[in-house]
Target: Flagellar biosynthetic protein FlhB
Amino acid sequence: MAPERSSAAGERTEEATPRRREEARKKGQTAKSIDFNGAFNLFAMVLMIYIFQDQFFQNFYSYSGEFFGHQLLTKTEELPNVLFHAVILYFQMMWPVFLTAVVIALATNLAQVGFMFTVEPLKPSWDKLNFIQGLQRIFSRRTLVDLAKSLAKIAVISFVVIIVVKRKIITVFGLSNLEIPTIVQEGRQILFSIAVAVVIAYLIIGIFDLLYQRYEFRKNLRMTKEEIKEEYKQTEGNPEIKSKLKARQRQLAMRRMMQEVPKATVVVTNPTHFAVAIKYVRKEMPAPVVVAKGADLLAEKIKQVARENQVPVMENKPVAQFLYRHTEIGDSIPDELYQAVAEILAVVYHKHKKRF
Model:
Protein backbone atom coordinates (compact mmCIF):
# COMPACT_ATOMS: atom_id res chain seq x y z
CA MET A 1 0.00 0.00 0.00
CA ALA A 2 1.42 3.38 -0.99
CA PRO A 3 1.92 5.99 1.73
CA GLU A 4 -0.33 9.01 1.99
CA ARG A 5 1.22 12.08 0.45
CA SER A 6 2.17 14.48 3.22
CA SER A 7 1.83 18.20 2.85
CA ALA A 8 5.07 20.14 2.88
CA ALA A 9 6.38 23.40 1.62
CA GLY A 10 7.65 23.38 -1.93
CA GLU A 11 6.82 21.27 -4.94
CA ARG A 12 7.57 17.55 -4.73
CA THR A 13 9.37 17.25 -8.05
CA GLU A 14 12.38 15.12 -7.10
CA GLU A 15 12.46 11.32 -7.17
CA ALA A 16 12.81 9.69 -3.77
CA THR A 17 16.34 8.93 -2.61
CA PRO A 18 17.40 5.36 -1.73
CA ARG A 19 17.27 6.33 1.94
CA ARG A 20 13.68 7.59 1.61
CA ARG A 21 12.64 4.37 -0.15
CA GLU A 22 14.36 2.27 2.50
CA GLU A 23 12.60 4.15 5.31
CA ALA A 24 9.25 3.63 3.58
CA ARG A 25 9.97 -0.08 3.23
CA LYS A 26 10.79 -0.38 6.93
CA LYS A 27 7.34 1.09 7.64
CA GLY A 28 5.72 -1.52 5.40
CA GLN A 29 4.99 0.97 2.62
CA THR A 30 5.49 -0.66 -0.76
CA ALA A 31 3.93 -0.64 -4.22
CA LYS A 32 1.62 -3.62 -4.04
CA SER A 33 -1.44 -4.56 -6.10
CA ILE A 34 -4.13 -6.68 -4.44
CA ASP A 35 -5.78 -7.24 -7.83
CA PHE A 36 -2.50 -8.62 -9.22
CA ASN A 37 -2.36 -11.17 -6.40
CA GLY A 38 -6.06 -11.98 -6.76
CA ALA A 39 -5.75 -12.52 -10.51
CA PHE A 40 -2.96 -15.06 -10.16
CA ASN A 41 -4.78 -16.78 -7.29
CA LEU A 42 -7.89 -17.09 -9.44
CA PHE A 43 -5.83 -18.36 -12.36
CA ALA A 44 -4.17 -21.02 -10.18
CA MET A 45 -7.47 -22.15 -8.66
CA VAL A 46 -9.20 -22.45 -12.05
CA LEU A 47 -6.20 -24.35 -13.40
CA MET A 48 -6.24 -26.81 -10.51
CA ILE A 49 -9.99 -27.35 -10.82
CA TYR A 50 -9.55 -27.98 -14.54
CA ILE A 51 -6.75 -30.48 -13.92
CA PHE A 52 -8.67 -32.39 -11.22
CA GLN A 53 -12.14 -31.89 -12.66
CA ASP A 54 -12.75 -35.59 -13.37
CA GLN A 55 -11.90 -36.48 -9.78
CA PHE A 56 -14.10 -33.65 -8.46
CA PHE A 57 -17.14 -34.70 -10.46
CA GLN A 58 -16.62 -38.38 -9.74
CA ASN A 59 -16.61 -37.69 -5.99
CA PHE A 60 -19.62 -35.42 -6.42
CA TYR A 61 -21.58 -38.10 -8.29
CA SER A 62 -20.67 -40.68 -5.67
CA TYR A 63 -21.78 -38.50 -2.80
CA SER A 64 -24.97 -37.42 -4.58
CA GLY A 65 -25.95 -41.04 -5.05
CA GLU A 66 -25.49 -41.70 -1.34
CA PHE A 67 -27.25 -38.55 -0.24
CA PHE A 68 -30.31 -39.06 -2.36
CA GLY A 69 -30.49 -42.75 -1.56
CA HIS A 70 -33.55 -43.95 0.29
CA GLN A 71 -31.50 -45.05 3.29
CA LEU A 72 -30.27 -41.52 4.03
CA LEU A 73 -33.51 -39.70 3.25
CA THR A 74 -35.69 -41.93 5.48
CA LYS A 75 -33.47 -41.81 8.54
CA THR A 76 -33.21 -38.32 10.01
CA GLU A 77 -30.84 -39.49 12.74
CA GLU A 78 -28.29 -40.10 10.00
CA LEU A 79 -28.32 -36.44 8.90
CA PRO A 80 -25.34 -35.35 11.09
CA ASN A 81 -23.27 -38.18 9.64
CA VAL A 82 -24.30 -37.19 6.14
CA LEU A 83 -23.28 -33.57 6.70
CA PHE A 84 -19.99 -34.62 8.29
CA HIS A 85 -19.31 -36.87 5.33
CA ALA A 86 -20.08 -33.92 3.02
CA VAL A 87 -17.56 -31.68 4.80
CA ILE A 88 -14.85 -34.36 4.64
CA LEU A 89 -15.54 -34.92 0.97
CA TYR A 90 -15.43 -31.17 0.31
CA PHE A 91 -11.98 -30.86 1.84
CA GLN A 92 -10.79 -33.98 0.04
CA MET A 93 -11.86 -32.39 -3.22
CA MET A 94 -10.64 -28.87 -2.59
CA TRP A 95 -7.39 -29.22 -0.62
CA PRO A 96 -5.19 -29.05 -3.78
CA VAL A 97 -6.97 -25.84 -4.77
CA PHE A 98 -6.55 -24.28 -1.32
CA LEU A 99 -2.88 -25.30 -1.08
CA THR A 100 -2.19 -23.89 -4.54
CA ALA A 101 -3.91 -20.63 -3.60
CA VAL A 102 -1.69 -20.26 -0.52
CA VAL A 103 1.51 -21.00 -2.49
CA ILE A 104 0.57 -18.61 -5.30
CA ALA A 105 -0.35 -15.88 -2.80
CA LEU A 106 3.09 -16.15 -1.16
CA ALA A 107 4.86 -16.28 -4.52
CA THR A 108 3.10 -13.20 -5.95
CA ASN A 109 3.76 -11.22 -2.77
CA LEU A 110 7.45 -12.11 -2.92
CA ALA A 111 7.53 -11.21 -6.61
CA GLN A 112 6.05 -7.78 -5.92
CA VAL A 113 7.79 -6.63 -2.73
CA GLY A 114 10.38 -9.33 -1.91
CA PHE A 115 10.87 -10.67 1.58
CA MET A 116 9.80 -8.06 4.09
CA PHE A 117 9.02 -8.32 7.81
CA THR A 118 7.93 -5.29 9.77
CA VAL A 119 5.67 -4.61 12.74
CA GLU A 120 5.42 -0.90 11.99
CA PRO A 121 1.84 -1.07 10.58
CA LEU A 122 0.72 -2.86 13.79
CA LYS A 123 1.90 -0.09 16.11
CA PRO A 124 -0.93 2.02 17.58
CA SER A 125 -1.26 5.48 16.11
CA TRP A 126 -3.37 8.30 17.56
CA ASP A 127 -3.82 9.68 14.07
CA LYS A 128 -6.03 6.69 13.27
CA LEU A 129 -8.39 7.72 16.09
CA ASN A 130 -8.67 11.30 14.88
CA PHE A 131 -12.24 11.75 13.60
CA ILE A 132 -11.39 14.64 11.28
CA GLN A 133 -8.43 12.86 9.70
CA GLY A 134 -10.60 9.76 9.38
CA LEU A 135 -13.17 11.72 7.36
CA GLN A 136 -10.39 13.18 5.23
CA ARG A 137 -9.12 9.68 4.45
CA ILE A 138 -12.64 8.47 3.60
CA PHE A 139 -13.22 11.31 1.14
CA SER A 140 -9.63 11.59 -0.08
CA ARG A 141 -8.58 11.41 -3.72
CA ARG A 142 -7.10 8.01 -3.17
CA THR A 143 -10.36 6.60 -1.75
CA LEU A 144 -12.29 7.93 -4.74
CA VAL A 145 -9.74 6.41 -7.12
CA ASP A 146 -10.04 3.03 -5.37
CA LEU A 147 -13.83 3.23 -5.61
CA ALA A 148 -13.64 4.06 -9.31
CA LYS A 149 -11.23 1.16 -9.85
CA SER A 150 -13.56 -1.28 -8.06
CA LEU A 151 -16.56 -0.17 -10.11
CA ALA A 152 -14.54 -0.39 -13.31
CA LYS A 153 -13.33 -3.87 -12.35
CA ILE A 154 -16.89 -5.07 -11.71
CA ALA A 155 -18.06 -3.54 -14.97
CA VAL A 156 -15.28 -5.13 -17.04
CA ILE A 157 -15.70 -8.59 -15.53
CA SER A 158 -19.49 -8.40 -15.86
CA PHE A 159 -19.13 -7.35 -19.48
CA VAL A 160 -16.80 -10.29 -20.17
CA VAL A 161 -19.22 -12.75 -18.54
CA ILE A 162 -22.15 -11.36 -20.56
CA ILE A 163 -20.17 -11.68 -23.81
CA VAL A 164 -19.28 -15.32 -23.10
CA VAL A 165 -22.84 -16.20 -22.01
CA LYS A 166 -24.29 -14.59 -25.15
CA ARG A 167 -22.04 -16.74 -27.29
CA LYS A 168 -23.13 -19.85 -25.40
CA ILE A 169 -26.84 -18.93 -25.11
CA ILE A 170 -27.91 -21.27 -27.91
CA THR A 171 -26.06 -24.15 -26.23
CA VAL A 172 -27.71 -23.30 -22.88
CA PHE A 173 -31.22 -23.39 -24.34
CA GLY A 174 -30.49 -26.68 -26.07
CA LEU A 175 -29.42 -28.45 -22.89
CA SER A 176 -33.01 -29.30 -21.92
CA ASN A 177 -33.25 -31.78 -24.80
CA LEU A 178 -30.09 -33.66 -23.85
CA GLU A 179 -29.39 -36.46 -21.44
CA ILE A 180 -28.09 -35.66 -17.95
CA PRO A 181 -24.43 -36.75 -18.54
CA THR A 182 -24.33 -34.60 -21.68
CA ILE A 183 -25.91 -31.68 -19.84
CA VAL A 184 -23.26 -31.98 -17.11
CA GLN A 185 -20.45 -32.15 -19.67
CA GLU A 186 -21.75 -29.13 -21.61
CA GLY A 187 -22.32 -27.23 -18.38
CA ARG A 188 -18.71 -27.86 -17.35
CA GLN A 189 -17.47 -26.52 -20.66
CA ILE A 190 -19.61 -23.38 -20.36
CA LEU A 191 -18.46 -22.75 -16.78
CA PHE A 192 -14.79 -23.17 -17.73
CA SER A 193 -15.23 -20.85 -20.72
CA ILE A 194 -16.62 -18.19 -18.39
CA ALA A 195 -13.86 -18.84 -15.84
CA VAL A 196 -11.10 -18.55 -18.45
CA ALA A 197 -12.54 -15.28 -19.78
CA VAL A 198 -12.81 -13.86 -16.26
CA VAL A 199 -9.24 -14.95 -15.44
CA ILE A 200 -7.85 -13.27 -18.56
CA ALA A 201 -9.78 -10.07 -17.86
CA TYR A 202 -8.70 -10.10 -14.21
CA LEU A 203 -5.05 -10.69 -15.14
CA ILE A 204 -5.11 -7.67 -17.44
CA ILE A 205 -6.73 -5.59 -14.71
CA GLY A 206 -4.12 -6.83 -12.21
CA ILE A 207 -1.19 -5.91 -14.45
CA PHE A 208 -2.54 -2.41 -15.07
CA ASP A 209 -3.24 -2.00 -11.34
CA LEU A 210 0.31 -3.06 -10.47
CA LEU A 211 1.73 -0.47 -12.87
CA TYR A 212 -0.59 2.17 -11.42
CA GLN A 213 0.34 1.28 -7.82
CA ARG A 214 4.04 1.60 -8.62
CA TYR A 215 3.49 4.94 -10.33
CA GLU A 216 1.39 6.21 -7.41
CA PHE A 217 3.94 4.95 -4.89
CA ARG A 218 6.81 6.76 -6.61
CA LYS A 219 4.68 9.87 -6.91
CA ASN A 220 3.81 9.88 -3.20
CA LEU A 221 7.44 9.34 -2.23
CA ARG A 222 8.70 12.33 -4.21
CA MET A 223 10.65 14.91 -2.28
CA THR A 224 11.20 18.63 -2.42
CA LYS A 225 14.63 19.99 -3.24
CA GLU A 226 14.87 21.24 0.34
CA GLU A 227 14.24 17.72 1.65
CA ILE A 228 16.96 16.38 -0.64
CA LYS A 229 19.42 18.94 0.71
CA GLU A 230 18.44 18.21 4.31
CA GLU A 231 18.87 14.48 3.82
CA TYR A 232 22.24 15.06 2.19
CA LYS A 233 23.34 17.06 5.21
CA GLN A 234 22.21 14.27 7.54
CA THR A 235 23.88 11.46 5.60
CA GLU A 236 26.95 13.13 4.11
CA GLY A 237 27.33 16.06 6.46
CA ASN A 238 27.07 19.78 5.88
CA PRO A 239 29.03 20.65 2.70
CA GLU A 240 30.59 23.70 4.34
CA ILE A 241 31.72 21.67 7.33
CA LYS A 242 33.06 18.93 5.07
CA SER A 243 35.00 21.51 3.05
CA LYS A 244 36.53 22.92 6.23
CA LEU A 245 37.42 19.44 7.44
CA LYS A 246 39.09 18.59 4.15
CA ALA A 247 41.04 21.85 4.27
CA ARG A 248 42.08 21.07 7.82
CA GLN A 249 43.16 17.57 6.81
CA ARG A 250 45.21 18.97 3.95
CA GLN A 251 46.90 21.38 6.33
CA LEU A 252 47.75 18.60 8.77
CA ALA A 253 49.06 16.40 5.95
CA MET A 254 51.13 19.31 4.65
CA ARG A 255 52.52 19.97 8.09
CA ARG A 256 53.49 16.33 8.61
CA MET A 257 55.12 16.24 5.19
CA MET A 258 57.13 19.40 5.80
CA GLN A 259 58.28 17.95 9.13
CA GLU A 260 59.85 15.06 7.19
CA VAL A 261 61.86 17.30 4.84
CA PRO A 262 64.63 18.07 7.39
CA LYS A 263 65.07 14.31 7.87
CA ALA A 264 65.45 13.70 4.13
CA THR A 265 68.71 12.57 2.55
CA VAL A 266 68.31 14.63 -0.62
CA VAL A 267 65.73 16.76 -2.46
CA VAL A 268 65.56 16.17 -6.22
CA THR A 269 64.21 19.11 -8.28
CA ASN A 270 62.99 19.87 -11.79
CA PRO A 271 64.48 22.55 -10.98
CA THR A 272 61.57 25.04 -10.81
CA HIS A 273 58.30 23.09 -11.02
CA PHE A 274 58.83 19.90 -8.96
CA ALA A 275 60.65 18.94 -5.78
CA VAL A 276 60.79 15.44 -4.28
CA ALA A 277 62.43 14.68 -0.92
CA ILE A 278 64.03 11.23 -0.60
CA LYS A 279 65.13 9.54 2.59
CA TYR A 280 67.48 6.57 2.81
CA VAL A 281 69.03 4.90 5.85
CA ARG A 282 71.06 1.93 4.66
CA LYS A 283 70.74 -0.32 7.71
CA GLU A 284 67.12 0.54 8.42
CA MET A 285 65.50 0.78 4.98
CA PRO A 286 65.55 -1.73 2.11
CA ALA A 287 65.16 1.07 -0.46
CA PRO A 288 64.95 4.89 -0.60
CA VAL A 289 61.52 6.30 0.26
CA VAL A 290 59.70 9.44 -0.90
CA VAL A 291 58.93 11.51 2.21
CA ALA A 292 57.69 14.73 0.57
CA LYS A 293 56.82 16.10 -2.85
CA GLY A 294 55.30 19.23 -4.30
CA ALA A 295 54.88 21.43 -7.35
CA ASP A 296 55.38 25.15 -7.94
CA LEU A 297 54.97 27.06 -4.64
CA LEU A 298 55.02 23.89 -2.57
CA ALA A 299 58.18 22.80 -4.37
CA GLU A 300 59.80 26.13 -3.46
CA LYS A 301 58.75 25.62 0.16
CA ILE A 302 60.30 22.14 0.23
CA LYS A 303 63.56 23.45 -1.21
CA GLN A 304 63.59 26.33 1.28
CA VAL A 305 63.09 24.00 4.26
CA ALA A 306 65.77 21.66 2.88
CA ARG A 307 68.33 24.44 2.57
CA GLU A 308 67.52 25.75 6.05
CA ASN A 309 68.24 22.27 7.45
CA GLN A 310 71.30 21.62 5.24
CA VAL A 311 69.60 18.93 3.18
CA PRO A 312 71.26 18.68 -0.26
CA VAL A 313 69.15 19.90 -3.18
CA MET A 314 70.05 18.37 -6.53
CA GLU A 315 68.65 18.99 -9.99
CA ASN A 316 67.59 15.98 -12.04
CA LYS A 317 64.61 16.66 -14.26
CA PRO A 318 63.73 13.10 -15.40
CA VAL A 319 63.95 11.67 -11.87
CA ALA A 320 62.04 14.54 -10.27
CA GLN A 321 59.25 14.42 -12.87
CA PHE A 322 58.89 10.63 -12.71
CA LEU A 323 58.82 10.51 -8.91
CA TYR A 324 56.30 13.34 -8.66
CA ARG A 325 53.91 11.78 -11.17
CA HIS A 326 54.25 8.09 -10.28
CA THR A 327 54.82 7.88 -6.52
CA GLU A 328 53.01 8.92 -3.36
CA ILE A 329 54.29 9.92 0.06
CA GLY A 330 55.72 6.82 1.78
CA ASP A 331 56.32 4.88 -1.48
CA SER A 332 59.64 3.22 -2.15
CA ILE A 333 61.61 4.20 -5.22
CA PRO A 334 60.41 2.24 -8.30
CA ASP A 335 62.76 -0.45 -9.56
CA GLU A 336 63.43 1.39 -12.83
CA LEU A 337 64.87 4.37 -10.90
CA TYR A 338 67.19 2.42 -8.58
CA GLN A 339 70.26 3.14 -10.71
CA ALA A 340 69.48 6.85 -11.19
CA VAL A 341 68.71 7.41 -7.49
CA ALA A 342 71.80 5.43 -6.45
CA GLU A 343 73.93 7.77 -8.58
CA ILE A 344 72.28 10.80 -6.92
CA LEU A 345 72.93 9.38 -3.45
CA ALA A 346 76.54 8.64 -4.39
CA VAL A 347 77.04 12.25 -5.47
CA VAL A 348 75.47 13.45 -2.22
CA TYR A 349 77.83 11.23 -0.24
CA HIS A 350 80.94 12.37 -2.01
CA LYS A 351 80.02 16.03 -2.30
CA HIS A 352 78.41 16.63 1.08
CA LYS A 353 80.05 13.80 3.03
CA LYS A 354 76.52 12.75 4.09
CA ARG A 355 76.40 9.20 5.42
CA PHE A 356 73.33 7.04 4.95
Notes: The chain has a mean pLDDT of 77. The domain at 257-352 is CATH 3.40.1690.10 (name from scop).
